[in-house]
Amino acid sequence: MTHPFTGAGVALITPFNEDKSIDYRALEQLIENQILGGINYLVALGTTAETPTLSEDEKKEIVRFVIEKNAGRLKIVMGMGGNNTHALVQSIQNTNFDGVDAILSVTPYYSKPIQEGLFQHFKMIVEASPVPVILYNVPGRTGVNMDADTTLRIANLSDKVVAIKEASGDLGQFAKIINHAPAYFKVISGDDSLTLPSIAMGSIGVISVIANALPGKLSQLTHESLIGDMHQAGILHLQLAEMLKLIFREGNPGGVKALMEMMGIVKNQLRLPLVPISPSTWSAIEAEWKKIRNNENAMK
To answer: Residue 262, Cβ neighbours under 10 Å: how many?
Structure first.
C-alpha cells in the first residue's frame, strides 16, 4: 500500500500585497500551479508561510481558502506547532479538520526541551489530534534536534504518527529512523537539496520550498528518484543545485519569493521581521534563473 504522503509536497508561501495584506488571487494561482506541476500534496501554515506573522483569523482563512480552491484534488497538511504544549493541545481540540488530511507539528522552538520533554510534548499532540500527525524536526530553526531514538519512540506510540519531515541534514539520523521505524511510519526530507540522496536511502519524498516556484522540476526530480531512475534524477538534481543554495542564502522564504517575483507569480513582499533579500543575492538568483530557462529552451 502506498503511503498517503509519498512524493512531492510543497510548503506553501503566503503571498502578500504591497500593504502586507494577503494576496488571495496570487495564492489561488499558486495552488493551481502546484496541481498542474504534479505536486502530490499541499502544506499550509508551515514555516515557509511566515505563519508567526499571521493572525489567528488569517490562519483560519488561509486554510479555508486552500481547502476550497484545492477542491479535493490533492491532500492537505496543516502546520500546527508551538512551544506551549497545553495551548497547542487546546488549539487542536478547537480546530475544524474538515478537508485537512494531516497536521505537521514542529518541535518546540526556543525552549530547547530535552528528549523526554519532546516525547511528552508529541505524546499529547498525538492523543489530541483526530487526524494523522507528521512530526517536523528542524534544529536549525528551533534550536533543538529530536534524535532518532526519540523519533522512533514517538512513532511507536500509534499508527496515527505517519511520518517525520526530517530537516536535520544528518543522513546518519535519516538512516537510523528508516532502518528501525514501524512499517506505517516514513521519513520525508525537509531539505530540497537532500531529496535525491534521502530517497536513495529509503525516504518517501520531500516537503519542498522551491516547488512554490518550480513545481514541475521538483516533482519530476522526486518521482524519478522514487521509481529508481537515478540517472535522470541526478541530472535534475544538478540543474537545481545552485538555485537551491541561492534561495536559502539569506533565509526562507525571502529567496524563493524573489525568484517568484522574477517569474511573475507573486510580489516580493514579506512581513517583518523578514525583509527582502539583498541586491547581490537578487542578482545571483536572477542570473541562475536565466541559466535554467536557457537550458530548458535548448532542450526543446
So the answer is: 15
